Amino acid sequence: MNHHATDAHALAAAYALGALDEDEREDFDTHLQACEACRQDAAEFEATTARLAAAVSQPPPAAAKAQVMAAVDGVRQLPPRVPAAGRAPALGGFLRRRAVSLALAAGVAAGALGGVAVWQAQNGQEQEQQARQAQQQLDAISAVLAAPDARTVHGKAANGALTTVVTSEQRNQAVFTAANLPAPGTGKTYQLWLDHDGTMLPAGLIDHDGTVTLTGDPADAGAVGLTLEPDGGSPRPTTDPLLLMALPA
């Protein structure tokens, strides 16, 4: 996320996840009316969270509802939780301000892991493998978003796609998100690149809206590129870049 001078700007991710209390949300709604940057940040966080959750979600088994309803009568009701007297509510707000990226990663994980659990409960080696791959992808993305040194930049590709890159120097990893990405066409795919002093090195493929971790070493890279390539990708770019966006410092 962009760095701003006031706490209000730091609440976009928590706002997108519904993690603000009522007073904070009302204050942030007022702030959004006058802050274009935060409106864009909040919208992109919401879209990214939805795409990550959808990437690993699956419909529950047909018998799941009947099994849950049958078990309801046998579940003991717990008493309501009452906050301990004297506990300062300000702690929650402080943690949200100090860990916005962590809040985003936690929200993404909460939405997505339910789908992974359903996958793992089903039979079939192929489905179990898909669940493991989805879990690994989610873990890698969440780790970058939750990194204390995460930095974010936004861009727009020549084909109209809205892009976001989040980097972590500590983890030496970067995450790329695309929205409104046109279909690449038959036999084509979008390929990501890391620009190392003018040398473009392959950094992964993306063929639809979503979020991926970049392969390769972003530590010495100055920019992320996006080109349209033959299906399967190319060792070197074969078309003019649709995007060449400087990585956050």
Quick summary:
This protein has helices at 12-16, 22-32, 36-55, 64-72, 90-98, 100-121, 125-146; strands at 151-156, 162-168, 173-179, 188-196, 199-206, 210-213, 223-230, 243-246.
Total domain units: 2
Which residues form runs of ≥5 with pLDDT under 50? 1-6, 87-103, 109-113
Secondary-structure content class: alpha+beta
The number of helical segments is 7
How would you spell out the order of helices and strands? HHHHHHHEEEEEEEE
Task: List the main descriptive attributes of the protein structure presented here.
single chain; 249 residues; alpha+beta; 2 domains; four-stranded antiparallel sheet; 7 helices; 8 strands; disordered N terminus
Structure commentary:
The chain contains 7 helices and 8 strands, in the order αααααααββββββββ. By secondary structure, the protein is of the alpha+beta class. The chain folds into 2 domains: about 5-75 and about 90-145, no CATH class; about 150-245, no CATH class. The strands form 2 sheets. The chain has a 4-stranded antiparallel β-sheet, with helices on one face. It has a 4-stranded antiparallel β-sheet with strand order 5-4-7-8, with no helix packed on it. A hairpin with a 5-residue loop joins strand 1 (about 150-155) and strand 2 (about 160-170). Helix 3 runs parallel beside helix 6 and helix 6 (about 100-120) packs antiparallel against helix 7 (about 125-145). The longest helix is centred in the middle third of the chain and has 22 residues, at about 100-120. The radius of gyration is 21 Å and the shape is globular.
